[in-house]
């Protein structure tokens, strides 16, 4: 098979591991910087061009698209879909999961456990917004934030008002969520490939830090998840329409709650902490499913 990986940096751990595993299984693989692609959008013969070359003959595309370039990255992926190239994750599913508000609304509609969440742009009554999620302590998040950036824990109602007003001054869309204190600064990352939880790790924030992101200095270790956590993670990925996903769950007093569904989950933390060859599982999934036109959206949506 000929596999393309949409990634801005071939040296990144996740990209490099996917290349290694694809080559080890005898596939031809190529890393493509999606921001350097340009497209011919036509009805009869859509194409993608890269460094003056027309990209052709790909059986599958693995999108490793960063959150900051979701719009352009998914446009390139959608073009490949129009060319009947199999996408590991479809463009519409990635776009859906990257919109924090939309993803939470979709999960809530299907009854998935979530932290109590408020959404606002220009709250006329900040006090009522705070009451909506149960009062302080609470978490304020920028909609566009990733890897724990733009996430603030407000310990008191007064502090929450100050943070919300500050984000309001920046014309930012924000989520206000209840703080799950019993989680103890830890979350569970469930890694899903093809409708199965293939690995799970517990991420623990560093001392005094409520964010568990590894990018914020957190640590990770192998963890055994409950059947409820497994089903919650699988349902969340299915609702987003993702074949490969990292579902982040908090252990609350009222059961597992989903914090985020990640469409481009990193491989380093999960492979290192669990010892599992997750990259190999992804390539195996592609081998079993990559057929021309095997996509629900065909570039629509």
What is the secondary structure topology, with strand pairs?
Layout (H helix, E strand, L loop, with lengths): L1 E5 L6 H12 L3 E5 L4 E4 L6 E4 L2 E3 L4 E4 L6 H13 L3 E2 L3 H8 L1 H10 L7 E4 L5 H7 L5 E5 L8 E4 L2 H13 L4 E5 L7 E8 L2 E9 L14 E4 L4 H14 L3 E9 L2 E8 L5 H7 L3 H12 L12
Helix pairs in contact: 1-9, 2-3
List keywords for this structure.
single chain; 301 residues; alpha+beta; Rossmann fold; Dna Ligase, domain 1; D-amino Acid Aminotransferase, Chain A, domain 1; five-stranded antiparallel β-sheet; 16 strands
Radius of gyration using CA atoms only: 20 Å
Can you write the helix and strand succession as a string?
Answer: EHEEEEEHEHHEHEEHEEEEHEEHH
> Class of the largest domain in CATH?
Alpha Beta
Beta strand count: 16
CATH architectural group of the largest domain: 2-Layer Sandwich
Major sheet description: 5 strands, antiparallel
**Class by alpha and beta content:** alpha+beta
The CATH homologous superfamily of the largest domain is termed: ATP-grasp fold, B domain
Number of domains: 3
From the spread of the alpha carbons, the general shape counts as globular
What's the mean pLDDT score?
89
Percent of residues in β-strands: 25-35%
Please count the helical segments: 9
Helix content: 25-40%
* CATH topology value of the largest domain: D-amino Acid Aminotransferase, Chain A, domain 1
| Unreliable runs | none
Widest beta sheet: strand line-up: 14-13-12-15-16
Termini gap:
27 Å
